[in-house]
Amino acid sequence: MDWQNGLIRDMVKPEYLIVSSELGVAIADKFPKAMHHYLVLPTADIPSIFVLNRSHLPLLGELYRLARNAVEKKGVPWEDFQVGFHAEPSLHRLHLHVISTDFVSPSLKTKKHWNCHNTELFVPYEKLYKQLEKDNCFSRFPKSLVKELLAKPLVCNQCEFASDSLLNLKTHLLNHWQCKEDERKESTKLDNITKMMNEAKLDTKMMPLCHNQGSKNPFQLPPKQQAVKECANHKLDLSTTEMIQRNNPPFNFQAMNPLKSNNAPRYPQHHGSRPIWNGPSFPPFQHQINYRYPMLNGFRGPSNIIQHGFPHYPNQTFVGPGAWPSGQQSGVRSKSIPRNYQQNQNQQNAQQNSNLQHLTHNVNRNQQNKNQNKKATKPINQPSGNLHDQEATAPPP
Ligand code: AMP
Ligand code: ZN
Known about the structure:
There is one protein chain. The protein is an alpha+beta fold. It is 39% helix and 8% strand. It contains twelve helices and eight strands. The termini are far apart. The chain binds adenosine monophosphate and zinc ion.
């Protein structure tokens, strides 16, 4: 059958070639099942793994070296690859698969494509090498085993994910690849920055001029006068241009440094708006009113409109609209409470008071009589009594 000789026909075509040696050739797979998929074939006519024995071990070593060279030439990390043989190959000529483990490819179309690379049907290079060393041959799998392995559920090669649908698996694999790409981009960025910083540190010409060599900041250069002095000490002859360059690091470095004093904002103490005139302070209309004018923005109680249930603030919190100074600021307990709150309280207390009035009146009268009778002196700690107390103890009209 001609299609089985497709590899033999194409392995000599220059458009497929990646690297070659006397003993073998690495070519691109015509229907790659991953982002990177290469095949390494011997130039000698070796039909398949089933004819291999110990004598082929050096040749296998050469195929492996070609695989590494091909990956290196493509500029892809070797760790991203799996390298091995199909236990049930379909095409003639022994061929080593060198395939990246992302398995992101439109050519990955069937369950067989997945399982022949991700079950025991894929024989890693090291495994075959050891088996040849030990047994001097590699035997075909029984047909039933091949069938069983091909029918295995689709399990992700990078996590526990399993699915019966190849489409689901492919979407999942694409996610893995996307995440890895993002990570790779981030680490490349970091590497570049580190490299840039290391290069700056290793600038030996600059080092003698740095007055802060122990410092971690390689960009902090000495002032010009210091440079001139050190220049003389080190017997260095610096041109004016060089001097300027050394005192002004490149723009990309400047961006990572704090602002120099002559670039600093003119009014560092004001982080908000700038004055519109050139004077040393803000004009009055630009003052930020963050202190409290009495009567205007003193503490206000809960809204007049929303008054469900008991107010959210304790009595001590309220500062009357006319309070001066505010109880909040002076730490003095307020002498008045909001009008509506007082009204509510009055209404609530009205009934109570009327009940108490009679009783209180009697109590007061009894007390007065007692005082008169005993001619007692005025007590030292007379309770001051608040508004409620006064209301509650007030004599009836
Ligand atoms: P297998 O025989 O199962 O180990 O795999 C044969 C591999 O060769 C598959 O990955 C195919 O995509 C690939 N292939 C088929 N025809 C060609 C060709 N003409 N040139 C290069 N690769 C091919
Ligand atoms: Zn996964």
